[in-house]
Specification:
Layout lengths: L6 H12 L12 H12 L2 H4 L4 H14 L9 H15 L2 H6 L2 H13 L9 H6 L3 H5 L5 H17 L7 H16 L6 H14 L7 H16 L7 H24 L15 H23 L3 H20 L1 H4 L11 H4 L1 H9 L4
Helix pairs in contact: 1-2, 2-4, 2-5, 2-7, 4-10, 5-7, 5-13, 7-11, 7-13, 10-11, 11-13, 12-15, 13-15, 15-16
The chain binds 2-acetamido-2-deoxy-beta-D-glucopyranose and zinc ion (ZN).
């Protein structure tokens, strides 16, 4: 659980199950379509909500195509990864016992579409370059609003839910928005302090739809930023990808003589420094609360990886590691750390 599957493995596993529906699609680059279809099917949601296979396939292919493959990080593979993580969290006992099929449908759809049509640059960049999306969404959760409205556009275009009562499909659209908007990292403290208060007061009642919805928001937030909680070899690759995207934005800003956004200047930051900050101030606080809510082996494994990965990045970062030895740092070292490797391999049950 919580383990990312490489695409060939994923395809091999899924191909047997759904090859009939996707005969011509057994090629690389379809992990989002395969995975989402497979999960919807496995949860029995296609049957329960009487989803039309042709419409569903078209919807998923369009979703996948609307991600930008040229983005190093915010592409369809990230969306598939988040959908897979979301599935793992939905299976956690507290959620599995209380979520309705409708909740699960929303959770999976939100995960699959949560970064739809991501331009590969962040909100401050869109605002300072007077991008039409910044004007359209009034500088507020610009990207997340766009991901949501793009998802709604595809739902309507493919008429995936057109057989449901209008109020149901509107409710799906609205709740999808509320889930996707929760992934706005700049609003993390709002969500986190609400979560903390609920846990302190021990008053989350998952019989209430509004509380289940809040837990789904938190689950999606965790799924979105769980890369640092994966075993080092996987985590490291995601870190490289996301930093590559940041630095690419910084290069554009440099080229156009714009102010370089925080974390985006490749001369002032390293992957390690970006990651250590992200883990310390964003990921750790979120997953610490998540583990309080869902105190399971998966949560503990994720916190364990997080600690080890942070130590590995610190070892690669001369300033942060506190070692003042002369000469180059050895980029390969943290990878070789026997304790880290043993632990990440030891917990790769899935
Ligand atoms: C968005 O921010 C820009 C830059 O700060 C500003 O010029 C613009 O008026 C803002 N737009 C809205 C709708 O607030
Ligand atoms: Zn994301």
């Amino acid at each position: 659980m919580g383990k990312i599957l490489s695409e060939p493995v994923l395809l091999k596993r899924l191909a047997g199950t759904i090859a009939l529906q996707f005969t011509v699609y057994i090629v690389y680059g379809n992990s989002l379509v395969f995975l989402t279809f497979h999960l919807l099917n496995q949860y029995g949601l296609i049957e329960l909500f009487q989803l039309d296979m042709v419409k569903l396939r078209r919807f998923l292919v369009l979703v996948q195509e609307d991600y930008h493959n040229q983005n190093p990080y915010h592409n369809a593979v990230h969306a598939a990864d988040v959908t897979q993580a979301m599935h793992c969290y939905l299976r956690e006992p507290k959620l599995a016992q209380s979520l309705t099929s409708f909740d699960i449908l929303l959770g999976l759809l939100a995960a699959a579409t949560h970064d739809l049509d991501h331009p590969g640059v962040n909100q401050p960049f869109l605002i300072k370059t007077n991008h039409y999306l910044a004007a359209l969404y009034r500088n507020t959760s610009v990207l997340e609003n766009h991901h949501w409205r793009s998802a709604v556009g595809l739902l309507r275009e493919t008429e995936l839910f057109s057989h449901l009562p209008v109020e149901d499909s509107l409710s799906i659209e609205r709740q999808l928005g509320s889930l996707i908007l929760a992934t706005d990292i700049s609003r993390q403290n709002e969500y986190l302090s609400r979560f903390r208060t609920h846990l302190d007061e021990n008053d989350l009642c998952l019989g209430h739809a509004s509380h289940r919805h809040f837990v789904l928001q938190m689950a999606l937030k965790c799924a979105d930023i769980c890369n640092p909680c994966r075993p080092w070899e996987l985590s490291k690759q995601w870190s490289e990808k996301v930093t590559e995207e940041f630095f690419h934005q910084g290069d554009i800003e440099k080229k156009h003589k714009l102010e370089i956004s925080p974390l985006c200047d490749s001369e002032a930051n390293t992957i390690a420094s970006v990651q250590i900050g992200f883990m310390t101030y964003v990921v750790e606080p979120l997953f610490a609360e998540w583990a309080r809510f869902s105190d399971t082996r998966l949560s503990q494994t994720m916190l364990g990886h997080l600690g080890l990965n942070k130590a590995s990045w610190s070892a690669l970062e001369p300033e942060a590691s506190g070692s003042s030895e002369e000469g180059e740092s050895e980029p390969g070292r943290a990878t070789e750390e026997p304790s880290s490797r043993a632990l990440s391999q030891g917990s790769q049950e899935s």
